[in-house]
Amino acid sequence: MPEHYRALQGFKDILPDEQPYWRLIEKTAIEVTELYGYRRIETPTVEETSLFSRTTGEGTDIVDKEMYSFNDRPDKEGRSANLSLRPEGTAGVVRAYLEHGMFQLAQPVKLYYLREPMFRHDKPQAGRVREHHQFGCEALGESDPAVDAEMIGLLFQFYISMGLSNLHVSLNSIGDRNCRPQYLERLKEYYLPLLDTCCDDCQVRFYKNPLRLLDCKEPQDQARIAGAPKIADYLCEPCREHFAAVKRYLDLYDVPYQLDPLLVRGLDYYTRTVFEVISTTSKQALNGGGRYDGLAEILGGKSTPGIGFGAGFERISLELKRQKVAPPPEAGPCAYVVYFGKSAEMKDAAVRIVAELRHAAIKTEMGYGDRSAKSQMKQANTSGSAYAILIGEDELAGGYVTVQDLRAGKELALEAKQIKVQRDALIDYLQKA
Q: How many CA atoms lie within 13 A of 130 on its CB side?
C-alpha cells in the first residue's frame, strides 16, 4: 500500500473553510493601517542568519533553539552563506529601511506587512505552529511617545473592528540602555541565591538573558517571579516621562490598559514601551509588541528609534472562533447553467454562456460530467445560486434561455419562477436583476 503523505508537525494547511476568517483579518488590517497612514512592505522569507542572531541576541530561545537555518550552495570561490527562514518580521523591515535609504524620507516611516510567513522550530500548541503568518506594523525614525500610543491604538482598533470584545492592553516599560543595566544587576542579585531551585531554562537565562527570568512559565518559578524587583522602580527620569506620556495618550485614544510589571521581551533590541493585547475570553495574548530604539544601530545604521508589533493570523482566527465572530459569508454564484441533453452542441452552448457571464464579472457555475438535468438542478439549488439558466432544444433553436429564479418560494408555480430571455440580453438582465 502506498504511503500517505501528511503535513509536517507544526505546519498546517489553510483549508477553504478557514479562508473567510483570514480574509476578514486581511481586509480589516488593510483598512485600519491605511487609515493610520501606514504603507505596505514585503521582505524576503530568507535572510542571512546573522541578521537575526545580531538583532535577536545570542542566548534567546529564537536563536538558540528555534530558527530554521541552513548553508546555501557554495559560490565559485567555495564560500557558502548561512541563511535562515525568518523567525520574526522586524529585523527584515529595519534592514530594508536602511538598505533602501528610507531614513532620508519624512519621519516616521510607517510600514505594515500582512500574512507574511514566519518560521520557528517551536513546540506546537493551540494558536502556535512552526509556520505562522503575521500581520505587523513598524514605525521608524521617531521617539515621540505619541507614536507608541498611535500604534497601540491602531492595534486595538483593528481587533475591535473585526468584532472582538473582552480585550485590554497589557503595558509596561523595560527602560533603556541607561537604566536597564542597573535593574538587571539588581535582578541577578535577587535570583543568585535562588538559582539552584529554578528551572533549567532559567538557570541559562540568568547568564545569557536575565530579563527573560520574568517571562518563565514554569509553575515552580512563579513565586520567585512575583517577589522579584520591579523594573518600574528603576526607570531613569527620561524613561519615566516617556512612559507617563504613553499612558496619557492612550487615555485620549480610549484604549483600556493594565500595567503589568512582569511584561518583558525576550529580544535584546526592545526598549521602553512593551505591550500585548490580552483576551479575557481565552486568557491569551493576541500579539507582542514594543519599542526598539537601538535596533538600527546593531545593523550598522545611525541611531533610529522604532516601535512595532506582530500579530499571528492563526491566533487571531482562533480567537474569532472562540468569541463566535462570524466572518462575512462568501457570495454564492449569481447563475448556474443547466443544459438538457448530452449532445456536443448543447454542451458547447452551456460552456459558451458560462464564459460570457464570467467575462462580464457575473459569478457563474455549471454542471460537469454530463450529469442528468435532474442532477444539475439539484446542484444548482444547493450551490446558493440566485438563478438557473436553462438550455434545452427549444432554447437552442430559438436563441433564448429560460431563467429560473431559485430564490422564489415553493408556493409559487414553476411558471411564475421562469422567464424567457434572449441570449444577447442575458448579461444585461442578470446585471439589472
A: 15
CATH superfamily of 335-432: Anticodon-binding domain (3.40.50.800)
* SS3 of residue 299 by DSSP: coil
Per-residue pLDDT averaged across 359-366, rounded? 95
Q: Classify the phi-psi angles of 373: left when phi > 0, otherwise alpha if psi is within -120 to 50, otherwise beta.
A: alpha
Alpha carbons 36 and 29: distance in angstroms, whole number: 11
DSSP assignment letter at 196 = G
Q: Assess contact for 253 and 245: CB atoms under 8 A.
A: no
Evaluate if residue 62 carries a pLDDT over 80: no
Residue 208 is predicted with a pLDDT of: 84
Look up residue 50 and give its amino acid. Answer: S
Q: What sign does the dihedral 413-415-416-418 (CA atoms) show? A: positive
Collapsed DSSP state (helix, strand, coil) of residue 115: strand
Q: Could you state, in order of their start, the residue ranges of all structural domains in the chain? A: 19-179+235-322, 335-432
In this predicted structure, the answer to whether residue 408 has a pLDDT above a threshold of 90 is no
DSSP state of 125: B
Q: What angle do CA 232, 234, 240 make, to 5 degrees?
A: 60
Query: With contact defined as beta carbons under 8 Å apart, do 156 and 171 qualify?
Result: no
Q: What is the mean pLDDT of residues 11-31?
A: 96
Residue 270 has pLDDT above 60, yes or no: yes
The DSSP secondary-structure symbol of 374 reads: H
Query: What cell was used for 243?
Result: 512612559
Q: Is the peptide bond preceding residue 108 cis, with omega within 30 degrees of 0? A: yes
Backbone Cα Rg of the chain: 29
pTM for this structure?
0.88
Residue 83 C-alpha from the chain's centroid: 24
Neighbours of 342 (CB within 10 A): 10
Nearest to 310, CA basis, from 274, 282, 268:
274
Class of CATH domain 19-179+235-322 = alpha beta
Residues 274/307, Cβ–Cβ less than 8 Å: no
Contacts by 423-428, CB closer than 8 A, 24 or more apart: 423/353, 423/399, 426/353, 426/356, 426/357, 426/389, 426/401, 427/356, 427/357, 427/360, 427/362
Kindly state the helix (H) or strand (E) to which residue 428 belongs, with its residue range: helix 426-432
The Cα 408–Cα 412 span in angstroms is 7
